[in-house]
Amino acid sequence: MFQFIYSLLIRLALPFILIRLWWQGRKAPALRQDWQHRLGHVPSIPGPVIWVHAVSVGETIAAGPMVRRLLARNLGATILMTAMTDTGLAQARKMFGNRVTYAYAPYDTPGAIRRFLRRVNPRILVIMETEIWPNMISQCRRKNVPVFLINARLSERSARGYERVRGLAAPIMKSITWVAAQAEPDAERFRRIGVAASHVEVTGSVKFDVDIPEDVRLASERFRTTLGPRPVWIAGSTHSGEDEQLLQAHRLVLAGHSDALLIIVPRHPERFDAVAVMAQELGFQVARRSQAQSAGGAQVYLADTMGELMMLYGASDLAFVGGSLIERGGHNPLEPAAWGIPVFSGPHVFNFETIYERLLADQGVQLVQGADDLARAINLLFANPAERKAYGERALAVVNKNRGALDRVVEGIIERL
């Protein structure tokens, strides 16, 4: 009954969802491309298919090393990557080119999921992290398609939310074949909300197995050469409500280091222009990457291109990871940590609870409360190269110490295939 009501509500909302998609497509035309995928109308794929679903950019990047390992195994199957966002698919295409197949994930109505499964006929569905869609999972169960939650995490707040709708959640949770949880608290919460204990395993976070391809390293070195010896800090994956604070912090950084450069990377492309205008109105000299403007005379460099954040982290002396000065829950701090540079975040990092716990335990990250706090910490490290180097080495050591989850996940997938 609960799933019937859920499906009915999704069907009733679908016209409004499509109208919203069309409206958003005014500023992001890619959203209107292949919109029929979202109703399950995707090209048929012959032969065995491994379906990997990653909701957006962060999950797509996290899935990258796993997909590379699966491709290297020559399993004789097509890998289909889906996402809910245009930026997620753009990131996947940038990472894999024509080595995998791409589609938008269907909206979670029974009809859209059935059409999608009929055309794709996957052997398994691998969901990155915790995208739990009731019809997607239940329809896969009916088609005998195993469902794996990989790199799964579940906050206490989310667990309590599922417990409040236990009648809807429990049958879905029982349909999940394997949960590869990041940590024991995550595993315990999945068991609590109805996943069979025998289907839950703690594998660790695959994000510690961060992979920096050689071409990214070379591109980072080339870009850093264009910046010269000036101090450079980067604010990655920033959100509305943070950019003002970060620009305020940069004002204070410039007071101590007049040649410093801030590279700012908004999370969502539709905000690129607004951030550029904001920085200019505050009196900063701004250069935009999309317009091939030189950062030489700039104080703020707006990275308004897609799929280059990892490269830009490598060209920086230290990094702030966004989504954390507001209650967004933060983004992945392991990407800059893997470059061996100091990492800062705001206080709101509940989406990456386990990762931050390990970084904090070994002094591989510093949490700041706002612009003044961040600027003070940046100025101290810019003034002390030895301490900056030691800080970055601690961050990298945490990454290296926790590697290995990816091997366990890939072996688990192949074993269950």
Automatic annotation (TrEMBL):
Subcellular location: Cell inner membrane; Cell membrane
Protein known as: 3-deoxy-D-manno-octulosonic acid transferase
Membrane association type: Single-pass membrane protein
Function according to Swiss-Prot or TrEMBL: Involved in lipopolysaccharide (LPS) biosynthesis. Catalyzes the transfer of 3-deoxy-D-manno-octulosonate (Kdo) residue(s) from CMP-Kdo to lipid IV(A), the tetraacyldisaccharide-1,4'-bisphosphate precursor of lipid A.
Lineage of source species: Bacteria, Pseudomonadati, Pseudomonadota, Gammaproteobacteria, Pseudomonadales
Record-annotated 3-deoxy-D-manno-octulosonic-acid transferase N-terminal domain positions: 34-210
EC number: 2.4.99.12
Name of the top EC class for this enzyme: transferase
GO molecular function, one term: Kdo transferase activity
